Amino acid sequence: MFSVCSWTARRGRGAARLAAAALMSGLVATGAISGAGVAHADDGATEQSGASATLAGLETYDSAVIHEGGKDETVSAGLFRMTVEGGGTLQTYCVDLRNPTQPDAKYRETSWSGTTLHDNANAGRVRWILQNSYPQVNDLAALARKAHSGSLTEQEAAAGTQVAIWRYSDKADVDAVSPAAEKLADYLERSARDLTEPAASLTLTPQAVSGRPGERVGPVTVRTNAESVSVMPPTEAAARGVELVDEKGEPVTTARNGSRLYFDVPKGDEAGSTELTVQASTTVPVGRAFTSDTRSQTQILAGSSESTVSATATVAWAGEGAAPALSARENCAKGGVDITAVNSGDAPYAFTLMGARHTIPAGTTRTVTIPLQEDQAYDFRIKGPHGSEKRIRGVLDCVTTSAAGTAADGGLTTQTGKQPMPASVGGTGAGNGTDLAETGSSNATPIIAGIAVLLVLVGGGSILLTRKKKVPSEGDDE
To answer: What's the pTM?
Structure first.
């Protein structure tokens, strides 16, 4: 059985999602992009940094009650388990509680700035709770003594921890059903202190660089908590004589935190691009956020086994004219997706995006934000010459339901049953023999998750590379 720790969201939010998708569904942006471009068929909202995992289910949990609008709703509260691509297991609690979880949803590690925690002054307190409660503190007797709760089971410890997190992540009026779990939640809420956001398990900075043939293009700096990182130079670029080297010009196959990597591009090489991937095995820092490209609620890390993590970066080069490289990331502060253009060439890089013309002068870096509505499912296909293409997709999830405003129906829809049932999208959560409420954001949730908005930028440039293309140099151009 697959359980969710979410509860029934207001129907008004589901209607808003439909309206947003309908508004954007026919939108096409045409771009006049010129200059040396890069291609990337990667399937994600941002370049890979850290762990990627699949949601396995709600594993250790008990019951809690949400109080709102004079109504109560019973939900599951506790620890999820995720399986990491390449090996490893993660334990997570959920934030953004009023959104559903999707069975087998794919998640990626990300910064708080791309989640509902981006403007939450209490996000650091959530991290304190994670570090000072179950499962990081697995001595339940010691935890119970601090909380003055009496004995605690694993299920009660998980539920109490989740309840305390929801009080800060969602400003929820929520209580644990178990008295012991409730006392733990109160202790954690009362004791929590502000902590800083943890660093990524593995990232490359910047995620896109550009330059000229005959020089070292870069650097790309490795940031990681792993002792050692495996470096996988792109084989197609190597066949053209492009080498991945360190600051001394020596070829590299391994790196560590702080290593600076360069692409040594042969003089006289055609315009082109390639991608670097690095990989390591490490534990992901507690407090790292995980978001999904589908409509599945944000998770926050409570524990990690030794897990596989990876990161990518792209390089582009051109002999003359503009030499742009681009990357993308969600930016909740601005309510959209940032497209960052790096132009290391000797001519401006100009393009038109969604009706607005942008120019990146030679030797500069600028960011263009694609505005999106909250809960907008987006699927951008940014095309360039020679069939090159970058796909950016996901769901913008930056605001909790309570922060988004009150819905027209004015409250919750609660449905309980005497037997736990298997959960589906918008279905019922299964618990430890307890009555659980209907979950999901609305009956429209699966529809919204599947809506793709195609924004096509047609021209002589493109974004980021997976299929390494040779791109001719032209004049002008997250």
So the answer is: 0.72
Q: What region, left, alpha or beta, does residue 353 occupy, with left being phi > 0 and alpha being psi -120 to 50 degrees? A: beta
Alpha-carbon torsion (105, 107, 376, 459), positive or negative: negative
Is residue 359 within 8 Å of residue 368, measured between CB atoms? no
Q: Are 202 and 278 in contact (CB under 8 A)?
A: yes
Q: What is the pLDDT along the chain (478 residues), one digit of tens a residue?
A: 333 454 333 333 443 343 333 333 333 332 222 233 333 334 444 557 899 999 999 999 999 999 999 999 999 999 999 999 999 999 999 998 888 888 899 999 999 988 989 989 999 999 999 999 999 999 999 999 999 999 999 999 999 999 999 999 999 999 999 999 999 999 999 999 999 999 999 999 998 898 889 989 999 999 999 999 999 877 777 778 889 999 999 999 999 999 999 999 998 877 777 888 999 999 999 999 999 878 788 999 999 999 999 999 888 888 887 777 777 777 878 888 887 777 777 888 776 666 667 788 888 888 888 788 877 777 766 543 333 355 666 777 777 655 444 333 333 322 222 223 222 222 223 333 322 222 233 333 333 333 333 333 333 332 232 333 333 333 333 3
**Which residues are CB-neighbours of 44 under 8 A, at least 6 positions away?**
108, 293, 392, 393, 394
